[in-house]
Amino acid sequence: MIRIRSLGIALLLASAGAALCAQSFITDFAIGSCPVLPPESDGATYGVINLFDGKADTAWCPASPDSAWFVVDFGEPRDVNMFYIRNGYQRKTAKGTDLFAANARVKRLKLVNDRGESQILDLDDSRTEIQFFVSSSASFGRGVKSIRFTVLSTYPGAKYQDVLLSELRLRWADTSEDEMVKGG
């Protein structure tokens, strides 16, 4: 797991010892995932940290689409009421290849909280940010310490079957837009 801590506008990767700039996070949290693809020769990487870097042109890409998952551990109970997701790889190559269409995208995600409650999210095959609300009457998002996201199905890629997600943001029930867990 990688621990992310908020220190003003500095985002620290505790396990890597590196500092990155980002917008403020409301708390510290940890993230982890299944194995990911190795770095590309052009320097592109596919780690789970890419989901929270605030850059649409980076992405998380599991090594195997058949066992694709990641987890967000909040460290303390939180009331999560909204998810924002950017599906696919929002990047073009230097030669202009559209990597969104070339690669597979997530069609269905299963979310399981630390109490074992689950929720299914059906994602649009869209380049735009997709917003999901957690019902205020549902217990799924209330007082959760962690959520595991598992890819259940995908939209096929025109060229590759690697499945990618570009961004994930979470919003607590008691936070404003400026205080969401998000990247720069």
Overview in brief:
This protein has 1 helix and 11 strands; from the N terminus they run E-E-E-E-E-E-H-E-E-E-E-E. With 184 residues, the protein is mainly beta. The longest helix is centred in the middle third of the chain and has 4 residues.
How would you characterize the overall build of this protein?
With 184 residues, this protein is mainly β. It has a single domain (33-179), classed as Galactose-binding domain-like (Jelly Rolls, Sandwich), CATH 2.60.120. It has one helix and eleven strands, in the order ββββββαβββββ. Strands 1, 2, 3, 4, 5, 6, 7, 8, 9, 10 and 11 form an eleven-stranded mixed beta sheet that branches. Strand 7 and strand 8 form a beta hairpin. Residues 5-27 and 177-181 have low confidence and may be disordered.
Number of strands: 11
The CATH homologous superfamily is termed Galactose-binding domain-like
Number of domains: 1
Might you state the CATH topology name?
Answer: Jelly Rolls
Give the class-level CATH name: Mainly Beta
What is the terminal separation in angstroms? 21 Å
Order of helices and strands: EEEEEEHEEEEE
Proportion of residues in extended strands: 35-45%
Give the oligomer, counting copies of the same chain as homo and different chains as hetero. Answer: single chain
Radius of gyration: 16 Å
Largest sheet: 11 strands, mixed
Uncertain runs = 5-27, 177-181
What is the correct CATH architecture? Answer: Sandwich
Number of helices: 1
SS content category: mainly beta
